[in-house]
Automatic annotation (TrEMBL):
Protein name: Glutaminase
Catalytic activity, reaction form: L-glutamine + H2O = L-glutamate + NH4(+)
Originating species: Litorilituus sediminis
GO molecular function list: glutaminase activity
Keyword Acetylation among record annotations: yes
Highest taxon listed in the record's lineage: Bacteria
Keyword S-adenosyl-L-methionine recorded: no
Subunit organization: Homotetramer.
Length: 309
């Protein structure tokens, strides 16, 4: 097929300008004390298309805490190790509730609804600990290869800050342990979970890291098969249905792409076979998703008239 080459740079500049006036909407996450220290008015956008052309505006080269966006990467690594048997431990249904909610776990006997709510990501961390002798370095190795940046790392200040205040995640882990869905020591599991969430990236690195989901599971930097095209399809599908917690419907409705948010204010969105786009703006709406980030992505798919629908 002949894909018309779109100059996304003009679109990104237009979208960036459209966001003036929204600076006061939303609130920076403060429940992880270290995250409250961020400059709330940052805005960066970076898009990479299927020809590996890069388009960028604003603070796209500044590092931020990717938080729950990392759950897509831990899921990918766990899937590589476990394959389909992973789904015995965690489901693929949208939760319709908050990212840190406890209620469904009790009804569903400790099997989280999906790998992107906290409970599901904690189970995935438990699996990584069972599979790898050094899960933290395994994760970093994996993510560095995708990003093309061999220095990418955790922010220990953010990880330790979250560990000290992780009462809810502790509750989730204990409940699941009681149901027999956590194999390893709870402290070890939550340590990995908090380090996973503390990974730092720029928008540029994030867009690059997730290109495998726009490219049928292949890392376009190396040509390496990260996951099969079936698994890439499935990961995109879970992002579409579960990437924004109880706002997944709204994101699908307004943006029309699979995506994943984090409480650091980042969002990654994928247009399979077309592009990957990362946006960062730290102020969150009431559902814990970047207020301006959602608006940016809505404007990009609207102006470029391209979404998966
Ligand atoms: N580390 C955060 C937490 O567990 C991740 C939440 C998020 O980004 N939505 O609360």
């Amino acid at each position: 097929t002949n894909k018309a080459h779109i100059n996304y740079q003009l679109i990104l500049e237009q979208v960036f300008d459209k966001m003036t006036g929204l600076e006061n909407s939303g609130q920076v996450a403060t429940y992880i004390p270290q995250l409250a220290k961020v400059d709330a008015n940052k805005l960066g956008i970076h898009l990479i298309d299927s020809e590996q052309s890069h388009y960028s505006v604003g603070d796209a080269c500044e590092k931020f805490s990717i938080q729950s966006i990392a759950k897509v990467l831990s899921l990918t690594l766990a899937l590589k190790a476990r394959g389909d048997s992973l789904w015995q431990r965690v489901g693929v249904e949208p939760s319709g509730s908050a990212f840190n909610s406890l209620v469904q776990l009790e009804y569903e006997k400790g099997r989280p609804r999906n790998p992107f709510i906290n409970a599901g990501a904690i189970v995935v961390c438990d699996v990584l600990i069972s599979e790898y002798r050094q899960p933290k370095s395994e994760l970093l190795k994996f993510i560095r290869a995708l990003s093309g940046n061999a220095k990418l790392s955790f922010d220990p200040a953010v990880a330790e800050s979250e560990k000290r205040t992780s009462y809810r995640n502790n509750a989730l882990a204990h409940l699941m342990k009681d149901f027999g869905n956590i194999d390893n020591d709870i402290e070890t599991v939550l340590d990995l979970y908090c380090y996973l969430c503390s990974i730092e990236m720029t928008c540029q690195e994030m867009a690059q890291t997730f290109m495998y989901l726009a490219d049928n599971g292949v890392n376009p930097l190396t040509g390496e098969v990260v996951v099969s095209s079936i698994e890439a399809k499935r990961i995109n599908a879970i992002m579409q249905l579960c990437g924004f917690y109880d706002e997944a419907g709204e994101f699908s409705f307004t943006v029309g792409l699979p995506g994943k948010s984090g409480v650091g204010g980042g969002i990654i969105a994928i247009h399979p076979k077309h592009y990957s786009v990362a946006v960062w703006s730290p102020k969150l709406n009431s559902k814990g998703n970047s207020f301006i980030g959602m608006k940016v992505l809505e404007a990009i798919t609207t102006i470029s008239q391209s979404s998966i629908f």
